[in-house]
Amino acid sequence: MTNPIPFIDLPAQRRRLGPALDEAVARVMDHCGFILGREVDAFESALREFTGARYALGVASGTDALALVLMAKGVRPGDAILVPAFTFAATAEVVVWLGATPIFCDVEEETFNLSPDSLVRGIETARAMNLRPVGVIAVDLYGRPADYDRIEPIVADAGMWLLTDAAQSFGTTYKGRTVGTIGLATATSFFPSKPLGAYGDAGALFTDDEALATTVISMRMHGMGAAAYDHVEIGMNGRLDAMQAAILVEKLKIFPDEIAARRRVAARYNEGLSGVARTPAISEEEPSVWAQYTLRIAPDARDGFRAALQERGVPTAVHYPKPLNQQPAYARFPSAGNGVPVSERLAREVVSLPMHAYLDEATQDRVIEAVRAAL
């Protein structure tokens, strides 16, 4: 096997940032204020400027960002939260934590995102089960925003709220609207492999709703009130640490350039693989940040395809091999209407190729040639 290509090349980014990251970490080490503090304030300010959201709150992880919104909205047993079946477990996990019921909805063939038609069926399913449909978590899978022009009226007509899960789409826009300003709130993750990644767990929550922001600020610090040991909410330890914030401040400075580089890689992949593979759609109105570049391969050929690429030193990944309705922990929860056939089919077909901002053209060509040879 030839020398393997990194699936995500974090060392290349580290080399680019060089002394800036060292100096950012050293500042925190010098003042020893490791939780919240000046670096978190600076990062939140930079996030507000980047997104245009009124409030940007740093938290310990993307999962905590999701959970804090649900907690602040008082989600409880008897409530139903509509979520896509084709996503990472955290999207449904936070619903179950609070005793509510996730209703699994299907996704669309082209975008892999929440299907508005299935969402309607999911609301009907919740009501038929005598559950209260109160919220929707729409996931922007692989980096492309969901169809909010259709989703938002459905949510509003049902008297529900919308939480957007932008763990994979942070940094992009939807028809001129910045991710982070859609719905009641937006949650994102800065897990190291994300397009904007920390060097550990970190996340953020965005909202224009003052009451929600005030509650989350309290809840992320054990429900603290106006002073230490004054607890006005049932909260959690959801604080962002200063070291991660300091690192993310530096990474955010080069983030637009990295997004542009990812888009060039995706365009070149699409051009090179046209006619031999089912490539992802590229949209000018709903541009992706390409958290993943994902092909669809016939289920009976996927394992062989991955093995052939591995022999050529090209790693692949499957995001995700089982939809949530088929996961042992979640199989007992209901699916919308007639089920989630698209999610189940996609889980058998998807394969992600190496994708990051530091893939040079020679490496891209190597990936393209390996895919063409395997197919």
UniProtKB/TrEMBL annotation:
Gene Ontology MF term list: pyridoxal phosphate binding; transaminase activity
Species, as recorded: Salinarimonas ramus
GO BP annotations, alphabetical order: polysaccharide biosynthetic process
Active site per the UniProt annotation: 194 (proton acceptor)
Keyword line: Aminotransferase, Pyridoxal phosphate, Transferase
Residues with PTM N6-(pyridoxal phosphate)lysine: 194
Protein name (database record): Aminotransferase DegT
Superkingdom of origin: Bacteria
Family, per entry: Belongs to the DegT/DnrJ/EryC1 family.
